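REQUEST ID: PR-0412
SUBMITTED BY: lab tech R.K.
PRIORITY: routine
TASK: structure prediction, single protein chain
INPUT:
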Amino acid sequence: MPLWPVYTGTNEPHDGILELPPPPPWRAFDGGPVLDPPSDADDASAGSPDRTHRAETYQATPETVQLVNAALYLRRPLLVTGPPGTGKSSLAYAVARELRLGPVLRWNITSRSTLHDGLYQYDPLSRLYAARQALTGASESRFGNHAGRGVERHAGKREEDGVENHLRLGPLGTALLPHSRPRALLIDEIDKSDLDLPNDLLNVLEEGQYEIPELVRAARHTPVAEVLADGTDERVPVERGRVRCRAFPFVVLTSNGEREFPPAFLRRCVTLRLRQPDDRQLAEIVRAHLGDPDDHAQRLIERFLSRVGGGKLATDQLLNAIYLARASDLDAESLDQLAEQLMPYLGRTPQADAF
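STATUS: complete
OUTPUT:
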């Protein structure tokens, strides 16, 4: 029987992703050659203390668990919206750690981001320089006294001149490689993009494939190109310039809810709306990060909750205040003043932050 839920939200790593049932017929992909997924050891930053801590301490709600599993089963992107500091980006790390999906591929969106940036980067200037160096080597081999060494050097230059040596896959392009199990991809703050990017993503995420025109043109001479993948120095094979996934990646798109998305884009996503945590959830978050909340931490939680109605606050502001309260030897009055300064309303002027 298929396993539900595959993602449990317990933060205990397991191989439940292997129990994922076959995809719906309209979401089945057959890319190849099949690649083994990387382990966290293949990425120097994957085991960094900050990312490990975020993954281990993430507190998933029942609704979060249900919708993450819906996205995994349906092979659909998960659009996560909510106020700042509610753990939108941390969710991708928590799921990747629990399901052993390898290092999270992260694409930070700006107003200048394009689909091409996420798929791959190609440097024509470095290729032009390599070609010029190859011509220089050819001239030396033709007129130099050491013909054998010149020919050998010329061959090396020609190898460096290959288009695949000046191309690297981006986070989205790497996630869509034909891995045997899903990769985790975080597309962070998609609402910062220009108006075209969500629509540009539609076809790639729907079809699970893309082409690299530079490799397509070179396919007659180089049918299989070895290219660098995002986040690693390892090369992966790309046949005839075309990439098609096999296991659709677990894609998390985050948004602060600052813009509307096209209906066609929303229809292709599973949408999770995170809300400000209540007192019980805040206590669990504090416990996961800093241990059991003491009396002063409980007072700060109550103060935080009383202020949420007046504007936007982020949970990490509360954690910062509680951490300093425990790490310092300030008196109660000084701690209260410090907490007031550490928990200003987001997006408002400091003058408007009085309690």
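NOTES: Residues 66 and 266 are 18 Å apart (CA to CA).
REVIEWED BY: pending
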